[in-house]
Structures are given as structure tokens and as C-alpha cells.
Protein: DUF4843 domain-containing protein
Amino acid sequence: MKKLFSLLTLAFALVFTSCIEQDYPVWEGALVEFQDAVVRTPLAGQKYPRITVANTVGTVNLQVNLIGAHRASDETIAFKVVPEGTTAVAGTDYTATGTVVIPAGSSFGTLTVNVTNTGKIGGNVDLLLELEGNAAIGSSVNHNQVQIRITR
Structure:
């Protein structure tokens, strides 16, 4: 009788506790980040990684990730050059548009930096890029910067 009572008590406990509704919070925001900042190790003392390329490379493509729900229309994301981490000269060492587009229904966009072959030999220059986002999409605090080192 004790075994039957124990089994019946256990059955009631399972039945009445297994259907408890859980209200887990759901994040509904949206952020952008550099894929390279997520998968590469940051420089010592910095929060961003460095990608080294030769000045003969031509084009550097950086993947920008959308964290959040896909958008119904294209999203134009702004980025800037951070002067404190940049020694490269715009128009001389590189060109970039200042925006990247994440297509509608996609989680990724491509930021393109055109590296100029200056013909110089020796030394290097750095270009530190930072995602700014737009009115609807913010920028990830930890993964919004990438530095490109252009070697000559």
C-alpha cells in the first residue's frame, strides 16, 4: 500500500508540475558586429583584432553580422575610421565608402576596403574601423572594431 501511495504521489507531482508556464525574457533588439572581431583574438590591451594585408591585395572584404531578426528591407549601416588607431591616409593608402548594406532577409553584409598599391616598400600603416549602426540597429560594444594593417 505504501508503494502504491508513493507512486501515486509521484505521478501527481509530475503531472501538476510539468505544465508550469515559463515566461522567459525574449531579446528583441538588433545589433551589428564584425565577424573578424568575434573569431579573431584581440590585440594585447585592445578590444579589436588586427588583420594584416599587403598593399598589393587590392580589396579587403569584412563580414558584418546582424544580430537579431531579419529585416524586411535593406539596412544601411554606417561605419567610421577611428583616428586614434589609424595611420593610413584616406585616398592614398585606402578608400572606403563609410556604409555597408545588409540586404533584406539576410544576416550578413560585406564592408569593402580598397587598398591602394602605393608602390612603397617597407613599413606599414594601420586603419581602425568602427561600426556605428543606424537609427534602428545599434553597434555591438565588444565586437564593433577591426584594425587593418597594410604592409608595404
User: Anything to note?
Assistant: The CA atoms of residues 100 and 129 lie 12 Å apart. The first strand starts at residue 31 and ends at 34. The chain has a mean pLDDT of 92.
